[in-house]
Every structure is written in C-alpha cells, then in structure tokens.
Amino acid sequence: MAMSDRFLPLSHHPERATSETAPTKAVLIAVAGLFLGAILFFPLVTVFIEALRKGWGTLFGTFADPDTLAAIRLTLLVAAIAVPFNAAVGLAASWAIAKFEFRGKNLLLTLIDLPFSISPVISGLVYVLLFGAQGWLGPWLDQHNIHIIFAVPGIVLATVLVTFPFVARELIPLMQSQGTSEEEAALMLGASGWYTFLKVTLPNVKWALLYGVLLCNARAMGEFGAVSVVSGHIRGLTNTMPLHIEILYNDYNFVGAFAVASLLAGLALVTLLAKTFLEWRFAGELAATSRRH
Amino acid sequence: MRLLTRRSLALGAAALFLSFEAAQALADRTLLNVSYDPTREFYKDFNAAFAADWKAKTGETVTIEQSHGGSGKQARAVIDGLQADVVTLALAGDIDQIAAKTDKLPKDWASKLPNNSAPYTSTIVFVVRKGNPKGIKDWNDLVKDGVQVITPNPKTSGGARWNYLAAWAYAEKATGGDEAKTKQWVADLYRNVPVLDTGARGSTTTFAQRGIGDVLISWENEAFLVQKEFGADNFDIVVPSLSIKAEPPVAVVEGNAKAKGNLDVAEAYLKFLYSPEGQKLAARNFFRPVDPSSADPADLARFPKIDLVSIDKDFGGWTKAQNEFFADGAIFDQIYKPTN
C-alpha cells in the first residue's frame, strides 16, 4: 500500500506549527488576511459596487433581458448535467483506484489530474479538432445532422472535461487512507458488493463527496476558457453566464456586465455558505467520520 | 447524498423545463447571423426591422440570432462548423477563407449582391481625447515620439487590416511611392502602439474605458459610437487627409441555410440590407449607405468628405493584400516588433 502512505495524515505536524512564537503567528495571520483582502475581497466588492452604479432599477433591468435569462438558464443546465455526471464517474474512479490493485493505476491517476494541468483553451480546442466541421468526426456528424460544437452538447462536454478532477481528487486520498478493511468485514459478513458500497463506503466519504461536488459546481458555472472556444457566442443560445458577462462588457453595457458578474459571484458565495452550513449542522457526524481514519 | 441527488435532479428538471419553454417561445424560423465586432448596435435595430417586414410579407415570425467577434475569428468558427445562415464580416478576405476551406458558399459569392456584396461602407478615422492635447491632425502626427497609438492586431482583426492599409496608403503618397521609406514609416507607426488587441471593440475599450493611449485608429462608425456611449464632451474625432474605403461584405452561407431550410429568409435578409429601410438604419448607426437617397439627411451630414483609396484599385484586391502584408512572414511580421 505504498500509494496510501502518501496520503496518511501526519499527526506530529500540528504540534510543530503551534510551537511558533506569538509575533510570528501574528505576522503570518496578518499577511494571509491582507493578501486575501487585497486580491480577493476588495475586487469582489467593486463588482457589486459597479453593478449598483446606476441604481437597483438598471440592475434588475439586466435580469429582464431575455439573452441574460437564457445565459443563466444555460449555465444552470450545464451544471445540472456536468456535476452529477462527474460526481458519479468520479466516485466510480476513486472506488476503483482506492480499493483495487490493477495495472495502469498510476496512469489512471495521472489522467484524472490532466484537466487540472492543461489550459482550458486546449480542453476546448480538442473538441473543435474532434467534432468541428474540419475535425476527425466532423464530416460524419454533419451527414447525420448532429451538432456538438457551437451547440449545447459541446459546452457540456467542455465543462465535464474541465471539472472532472474535482470530485475524484477529493475522494481518492480519503478512500486510500480508509483502506479496505471495513469493506472486507462487510463482505465477510455476507453483504453484497452494492450493499457494501451503499452502507459502508458511501457513508464514509459523504463529506468529501459533498465538498468535491460543491467545488465542481462552482467551477462548472464559472468556466470561461474551454466554453468560449466551443460556444460560437450565439446570443440567447450558446452563451453561458461568464461568456455573457464579456459580451455585455463589450456592448458598453458595464452595469449589465457587473450585474451578471454579481449574480455569478453570488452563486459562488451561496455554494460556500451551503458548505459551511452543512459542516456546522452535521459537525458531530463529520467529526465521527474523520476520527475513524 | 439522498438530499443531494434530489436537489440536482430537481435543478436539472427545472433547467430542462425552462430551456424547453424558451425553445417554444422561439418557434417559427430562426436565422443565425455571424458578424464582426462593431455591428452589434446596427444589427440589433436592423433585425427588429427585418422581422417586422418578414412578418408583414409572409406572416411568419422570424427570430435572428447574433454572434459577434473579431472578423477573422468568426470566419474560423464558421469554417469549424458554426451554423451561420448569413455572414456579415469586416472584409471580403474573411468570407473568401470560408469559401476556400469549405464548400458551403461559392467562390464568386461577392457577385451575388450589388456593390460587391457590401451594402454599407465605412472608413478609418482617429479618435483623440477632448481638446486634442497632442495636436493630432493627420497620419504624420502618429509617428511622432511620445504619441501612443491604439489599433488592434491585423492578424486577427478586420478593422485593424483596414487601419494598416489606410496608414500604408498615406505613407506611400507622402514618400512618393518609395517602398523602403513607406515600410519604415509604417514600422515607426507600429512602434508607437503599446498594446495590440485582438478585435476593434477590444481596442475601443482599451482607449475609451481604460484610458490608454493618445489616439485610437478606428472604424468611423465605432468612432461615432464612442462619442455616443462615452459622451461627445470626452472625445473628439479627427479626420485624416487620406483614408480607405472599407467595404464590409455580406453573404448567405448556402450550405448551412439550405440544410436548415432557411435559404429564402436568408436571401431576403441580406436583400433587405439594400432596401430603403435597411439603408436608413445603416446611416443612423453610423455606416455609410451605398444608396444614400433614402437615408435621413441629418444622419448623412455627420459623414465628412474624405479622400479615399480603394482596396481593389490601390492594393489589387484582398487576396493580394493579404499575401503581401498579413500572411506569415509577410511585411507586417517583418516590421512589427513588440515594444516591451
């Protein structure tokens, strides 16, 4: 189990960190606070201020625009497909990697990380090269009147590719550190594989899964690069919220652009709040799961 | 987990339902117009007028979808399969590319409509900050030390290629046709460019919104729009002694329009650009109509008289200009070195 050793919690670290002197601690906290304030909080606040520059009326006017509504709908649709898909496939992949020994396991791990390491523009371009009219499958798709890029399927595919690692990356280290002893015990007591998965494995990883799903969702809604390449930028049809923000900005509609940006930022904040709330609400259970490994 | 699945299922169902509803609302015919950057405002007006006209003539509701971006980039998207019924791009060279790389429109597309398929024209002018603090009057002032010029990248932007050719035409005239000196003059001009955006609209926001540069070389229609959007008391338009007649062409992408059963409405759409109403709307949105007779005289009065060179007569057409100036390793690549 050389793989799982890498992810074992190193229990002696916390003590070493807390033995630092008080001034060092204060400086570290101040640096982190200042950094977050300057590059994160302040710009985020300006987004909301810009959106309100011409008052609430103009702000709400933006959301009455059918193209803006279409962009919001498309973003939700894409997330509603990509997130459950990545949750299911990510769970299956993590299960396979953590609980079984097989050849090519390291290769599979590397492949899961690939979308993190390549630029999103490339993640989009591979689909143009594959499904574009000049691409490998383009002529065949054209004959059968199937549209993938510059249409919703391409946007979903690009989003799935870019957001794939989130769930798997959260689950693999945890599942590896949990080992297979509980599953083995369940199997020996006569539980079926599926029953073992539902009653033993899944409860053990549900918090990591939830965290992965929330991260995956945030990125699926916010992805710009890969989606931009395969979108075709048809107003009211193939623009997601991030693309629509750019279009409004280039239309000199700065208030509109920042209004949609506020909504997108708001959705991200809601995601974060949901995560914090669930952690707080189920703190007991969460502690119990983490104590077990 | 159960809670989670239920939530995402509900979300998915809601989103599917909503998009289905939207598709219902967009029933009847839809036409996709793939256009370049500074036509956003014009086609918004024009599409409404055409839809009303088509409804009156045929009783059908037609919805026109729009996609805007750098002209070269848009042509590339159509080549890669973007299902445009019509393209309305910045220059003929980009539509030639679609004709060359796909069989979706004929090589002689430009002969299908009057005036080489250009229903409106424009030209290239300068936008400067209020009161013209650097005293810019003509092209020669753009190569002076300490003047920052904003223009997009001719590799990706149609407008930028018109800008480049207008500058070249001036330099050629000023140097008496000496090619080495002309090249040097244009190189000097691009030395004053701090940032090359990918599209005309990007350059405009760089200049007007972000406040970079002393002079913006711009489409005439975009220059008027800057005054309209950012206030006429913030920017002045300077008309140079010589410029170029820019002819943004339009074409039906027959392969796509036929497949979608849209050939009739696509052809009618482009013909409507030449109608009195289309010409009037073009003039109102700062494009020079090819048939000024039906335009509002007040709109026409805004267009200054300028000496204009022509792409066909003075540069031998787009294919030649493209190879000579903008192809890989051609003159633009030889003279442009980014200043860091």
Brief digest:
Chain A has 293 residues and is an all-alpha fold. Chain A is built from 16 helices and no strands.
Descriptive overview:
The complex is a heterodimer of chains A (293) and B (340). Chain A is mainly alpha-helical and 293 residues long. Helices cover 80% and strands 0% of the residues of chain A. In chain A, helix 10 (165-178) packs antiparallel against helix 12 (193-222). With 340 residues, chain B is α/β, with parallel strands linked by helices. Chain B contains 16 helices and twelve strands. In chain B, strands 2-1-3-10 form a four-stranded mixed sheet. Chain B has a four-stranded mixed sheet with strand order 6-7-5-8. Chain B has a two-stranded antiparallel ribbon with strand order 4-11. In chain B, helix 2 (40-58) packs antiparallel against helix 12, helix 3 (71-79) packs parallel to helix 4 (92-101) and helix 6 (158-174) crosses helix 7 (179-191). Chain B is globular. Chain B starts with a helix and ends in a 5-residue tail after the last helix.
Main β-sheet of chain A: number of strands, strand sense, barrel status? none
Oligomer: heterodimer
Q: What structural class do you assign from the helix and strand content of chain B? A: alpha/beta
Helix content of chain A: over 70%
Give the count of helical stretches of chain A: 16
- Helical stretch tally of chain B: 16
Supply Rg of chain B: 22 Å
**Major interchain interface with per-chain residue totals:** A-B, 40 and 37 residues
Shape descriptor of chain B reads globular
N-to-C series of helices and strands of chain B: HEHEHEHHEEEHHHEHEEEHHHEHEHHH
Distance between the termini of chain B: 54 Å
Judging from the principal axes of the Cα atoms, what is the shape of chain A? globular
**Extended strand count of chain A:** 0
Protein structure class of chain A: mainly alpha
Low-confidence stretches of chain B are: 1-5, 15-26
Strand order of the largest sheet of chain B: 2-1-3-10
- The unreliable regions of chain A are 1-12
